[in-house]
Amino acid sequence: MDNETLAYLPISSLASRMARGELCPVAVTEALLARIGERDGVLNSYITIMAEPALAASRAAADALRSDRPRGPLHGVPIALKDLLATRGVRTTSACAAFADWAPDHDAIVVERLAAAGAVIIGKNNMHEAAAGSSGLVSHSGPMRNPWDTRFVTGGSSGGSAAAVAAGLAFGAVGSDTAMSIRHPAAYCGVVGLKPSFGRVSKHGALPLAWSLDHVGPITRTVRDAALMLGVLAGFDPRDPASLDRPVPDYAAALDGDIRGLRVGVPRRHFFEGCEVSTLAAVEAAIGTLRDLGATLEECELPHAADAPLLVRTILLAEAATYHAERLRQTPELLSPSLKGALGTGSLVSAVHYVQAQRARRVVGEGFARVMAKFDVLVMPTTPLPACRAEADEAALTGPRMRNTAPFNLTGLPALSLPCGFTGEGMPVGLQIVGRAWDEATVLRVADVFERATEWHKRRPGGPALAMGEPPLSGGQA
Q1: Where is the segment annotated Disordered (predicted)?
Q2: Is the domain covering 3-238+247-467 a CATH 3.90.1300.10 domain?
């Protein structure tokens, strides 16, 4: 098997081939490290490559397989981490100068669970500084490039994770999502990104942006791989105050290939308005595919949807300003101008406005739940705007980019983005599928059936920019 084919194997296939002895975890890790060394100088999707720990873990995985002692569904599979997830003894920077030298003495719970399932942690992905932006251009380690066309943004804030998975530089990654940050870069980079229900995956050991909005979840190339990773990451953790003790289903078993009779809501008001033409065309075609596959589609309206992004912004800015208050006061020079500006704005949010936003949040959640009771899932564009060129990025784009995703951080509903087409400039378009609380299984089931019926996930990025090794981007807005 050539290295290009190997780099794009689904996790499910890679793990089973290693279990059968057809592939060696050490050889797979070595090949991936070589590929990262060859290609990531252009994409800048990693901050830290954990070569020695990864090779040691791959040797342990190989020994366990020889003794017929596989540890789980990710045994021997190289996985990357967004660089806000604590990793014992390895710097965890959050792409911010204020954390540039922090090497935690503990692992995030998701890192513990990956290791327990036999995964090999290959490195720490680049990200938008402190998870507080939508472009991927602002990072203490330099901006990220989109592997489909390196002139374009990756999206944020998990841009490095999405770019690495799309470019075959990781078989899967773990990201975080406060208003858009898993699904948005997944849409821009043409991969699968899943934000689970709030409380499904522990955030212990993840540097926060906004405690009551943050989620942790997988970024993969296929829906089945997202199901496998979520099965490893999910579960109650008493160390996370937001974690809830709910049964964790067998997500992979839920992918039965059949959505006949499932009720799919299409909330055209708000979520389809103002979308770029090719984005809308791709999503409408995807809706037609779901209808052809036997789903029952009906238009619906989510109450207070237009208010949700403002509520998210109020809560996010206030909580981020609280978390970073000491840094903003004592070492402002270690924060970028855009981050300082956002934190300064958050410092001006009054207690009254914050509490009122949290009270309104409950009203929005109850309204969404009433609508969701009539449907198995909702479908819509992941984001109204396609990826733009780096020089066209501006801070004002953050609001429109998060318009369709932020409401489901506010309500805590599970939401997934997967590829459903391309723009006229050849950039990926994402379809967002939203489910009822705790029902990631149905979201994954619908996404998997769509993926099986289409070819979008089989396309791979490439082109002259990757081969030429263009110099890193500079500048950009948060």
Answers
A1: 458-478
A2: yes
**Cα gap 411→404, rounded to integer Å:** 12
Position 471 pLDDT exceeds 60: no
Q: pLDDT band for position 467 (50/70/90)?
A: very low
Confidence band of 91 (pLDDT split at 50, 70, 90):
very high
| Type of residue numbered 12 | S
Is 417 among the residues known to form the active site? no
Catalytic residue among 45, 139, 141, 157: 157
433 sits in which H/E element? strand 428-435
Phi then psi for residue 201, to 5 deg, are -120, 130
Instruction: Name the residue ranges covered by the structural domains of the chain.
Output: 3-238+247-467
pLDDT value of position 474: 40
Task: Tell me which of 82, 124, 195, 203 is the catalytic residue.
Answer: 82
**Of 45, 58, 135, 181, which residue is the catalytic one?**
181
Residue 70's pLDDT is: 83
Residue 411 contacts residue 362 (beta carbons within 8 Å): no
181: annotated active-site residue: yes
Q: How many residues does the chain have?
A: 478
